[in-house]
Amino acid sequence: MRILVYAADAAKYRGMLQEVAPDARIAVASTREEAEGHLDAEILFSWGIPEDLVRRMPNLRWVQWLGAGVDKVVAALPPDVPLTRIVGAFGSVMTEHVFAFLLAIRRDVFAIRSLQAERRWEKVPAVLLRGQRLGVAGLGAIGRDMVEMGRAFGMEVWGLSRGGSGAGLVDRHFLPAQVREFAAGVDNLVLVLPATKETDGLFGREEFAAMREGSIFVNVGRGNAVDEAALAQALRQGRPSFAQLDVFREEPLPASSPLWDLPNCFVSAHCSGPSEAQRVGAFAAENLRRHLAGEPLMGVVERSRGY
């Protein structure tokens, strides 16, 4: 059995996989050049492999994506090649990222730091998360962690998803056709949506215009869901009042984007859910064990849905 692991930290995964499949030939690569000699692999474990390389792998029997979002690989795979993604490894770290910014903005740590720099003894008004309404768009594994954290802070939680399966998780549930009503009703709106045709451009000018004065908009899902030009204009007009964006339609975010310069927009470089090699590797190794044993795989992607 030939396995290719393609990732920036590919070598970290080899030992865990070799324990499960001691007789397998496991190659690791972090660049196109390193991968070129291993395109005959039957199994691919990857995050970020170029699509054209995937198309040149004729023996593929299974792909384990080492991330939650599969939009960068799903189109490159033949329909008969199973694709699995990591589930359950990113929710806690992404939730911490989101609430770090919600708290920093609501408690205005930036004003506190500025006052310190000026040696000024002034109180900064506190705005509590408790009692506010949190909206979570996308109620998968990551969204569920967001919901739980919101409840821990004493927030009312609304949710938006394409199906009703997540309705029981939240105080009020919305479908994509109700996105404007959903956006208008929350104080803090967090997107953890996958990149699909249904989510493309879901949040645009009218949705931002409907948001409350003082609201915060956060996107840690995929950049395709947001009309960035409309968001930049909305931020200039104060609805939403603040945004934290970790994902974008084009990454890296071009230097020409107006989002860089807006004082009420916090840009981060797709880092809300760092891949912890131990947790991701353990998931991948367990799936490899299941594959070898003929057992059902975890995190199977439904191609028709895109996740």
Question: How does this structure look, described?
Answer:
With 307 residues, the protein is of the alpha/beta class. The protein has two domains: 2-88 and 275-293, Rossmann fold (3-Layer(aba) Sandwich); 91-267, NAD(P)-binding Rossmann-like Domain (Rossmann fold, 3-Layer(aba) Sandwich), CATH 3.40.50. Helix content is 31%, strand content 16%. The chain has ten helices and twelve strands. It has helices at 11-20, 32-35, 51-55, 91-106, 109-117, 141-152, 179-184, 205-210, 228-237, 277-293, and strands at residues 2-6, 25-29, 43-46, 62-65, 83-84, 133-137, 156-160, 172-174, 188-191, 216-219, 242-245, 265-267. The strands form two sheets. Strands 8-7-6-9-10-11-12 form a seven-stranded parallel β-sheet. α4 (91-106) crosses α6 (141-152). The longest helix has 17 residues, at 277-293. The relative contact order is 0.13. The model has no long low-confidence stretch (mean pLDDT 96).
